[in-house]
Amino acid sequence: MAVELITSSSIEEADIAIRSTYRYVLGNPHVMESERLVTAESQLREGRISVRDFVRAVGHSDFYRSRYFEKCAPYRFVELNFMHFLGRPPESQAEVSEHIRRCVEEGYAAEIDSYVDSAEYLANFGNDTVPYNRGSRTESGLKQLTYNRAFQVDRGPAQVSSSVKASKLVGAIPSNAGNKIAASAATVTGSGTEKKFRIVVSGSAFDAPRRVSGTEYVVSARKMTPTIQRINRTSGKIVSITEVV
Length: 245
Known about the structure:
Its main location: membrane. It holds the Pfam family CpcD. Residues 1-162 form the PBS-linker domain. Residues 194-244 form the CpcD-like domain. By secondary structure, this protein is mainly α. Helix content is 42%, strand content 9%. Helix 6 (93-106) packs across helix 7 (108-116). The protein folds into 2 domains: 11-163, serine acetyltransferase, domain 1, CATH 1.10.3130.20; 196-243, 2-Layer Sandwich (Dna Ligase, domain 1).
């Protein structure tokens, strides 16, 4: 059920929207009192910010950053961003690559803002609705494949998103394959990390003394994070990320 908060809503309704945002955008965590966004909560209750503003604040929070950006592989980080902010999984390798590049080149905040400021977000949630899993309901324009992938990434209240560090879609999206719905493996980490990916980079020089304008690196999914970090430190620009088949 969608949770909407309009200007004339009561404090109790604002609190429902706050709890729903924490639950869905943060991926079913336990939020301690010290981790709550007290200022943003107060502003939402007073009608000084919208639900969309509050969602952005949650995405920018140290809570979200530490659990998903700093501790998850880049592929997992992006697929969770799609679910948490747009209510659907990524649909193509191009979408994933675009967001990984944005995060590397423009930074963490720009990556979060790209979802919250998107036309897709506004069309589906506007300023007043808490994001929800769009793949869990019948919706025009969403395919059965999207539902299956959404189920792989978001297993509902039984799974805390941060308990799974490895991507659930790292094999299916690059090959445009479907995901079979199987029993949850939320406590198993490392799934799919042996997939190989080719990262094409321009302007990087981190294999000095080699100095070339274009470089390709073939790495396993588990090594994507340190490789991307090294590329970023040497001012390289990621052109594409594709699966090696």
